[in-house]
């Protein structure tokens, strides 16, 4: 059997599959502090005891344990190179904790950035052959800081990259170069950054944060959100090939955050709108750090209140159960009222996260007249909404559609008006994304064997 592991901050989840990718069994155990391998050992014994004669011959893992991957982004224009870098970092599975536009100007700027404790710093700025000052100056400021040598990825103007990298390396910094995330206006290239960040995550972050880092570095292939996004993209391609739609949205609700992943396959920009300077990528991910159904439950209540999704009276009613969950993240609902509270918090987290993930349509007045613009991610052509993550067990089948409807409201958001919905009951999207690095065919077989009703029903309806 092949073991596909997700080392989470709360639970270590193991999915067992055959060599050709068919789903076999699953198990999960609590993640024990920094010693995450203890949970894996227990989960392996569980599955092997239920399948005599079968043993794990290969193990691949992803991880968000130890706080996951924290990144800082430094660039020039907030709407252009900085936004391109932010999106690239998110697609690599990172949580972007700091964003600096106009570059680093002084040691004070650098110290303020480093107080956020990023695991990796991503330096960008300038299209290829364009602005040189931002990347050169930011690298020079960092190089002057002693004793804070976290890994730095340089993915800006290729004319300046070697000079910037040399200055940092000469002062003891670990530096990796990647192709420019925005090599030209209306060009977005996140793949190089994504691969470089994946390697640094394994070698520097996993090994430095957790016990038995050397062994973990051999198991861990990527950050968990990166695996989920890869699984999302794979499923989107499978459905498109079957004529079952060209766009997929996945909502992953967790105890600390709510992530939204989306993939658009074969989607072309609609006519009649002003073209954006930063084009839309095939895949995207957003992380809402204030929307967690345990550690950040009160954040859900406050965000929903600000969005007008709940009244002041309902916010007051939800405050007590939300506070209980924040104070005890391992809390398990033991009655109907508490289960209802879990369901309500989960639905509100999904609704707010969907609103934040997408852009909106607006009419802008220019010297040439009124121009209709679409700013941000456009998911109006998405055809499927999938829920994943343990928190979604609290939901009823129609609830995802209700969340989408509530997210739309009367706002000009770039969300689809109607989609088909499904649930990743076996939590295999992350496992499939992980397996795809070793065998894309086996990863497809895993999705088909673990999500047959969803995939077949969509293909039939297409």
| Fraction in beta strands | 15-25%
Described by strand count, sense and barrel closure, the largest sheet is:
5 strands, mixed
Radius of gyration: 22 Å
**Uncertain segments of ≥5 residues (pLDDT<50)?**
none
Shape: globular
How many domain modules?
3
Secondary structure class reads alpha/beta
Q: Order of strands across the widest beta sheet?
A: 3-2-1-4-10
Total E-strand runs: 17
Query: What fraction, in percent, of the residue positions are helical?
Result: 25-40%
Q: Give the distance, in angstroms, between the N- and C-terminal Cα atoms.
A: 34 Å
Task: Compute the average pLDDT.
Answer: 89
InterPro entries: MutL
Organism: Mycolicibacterium confluentis
Protein name: Glutamate mutase
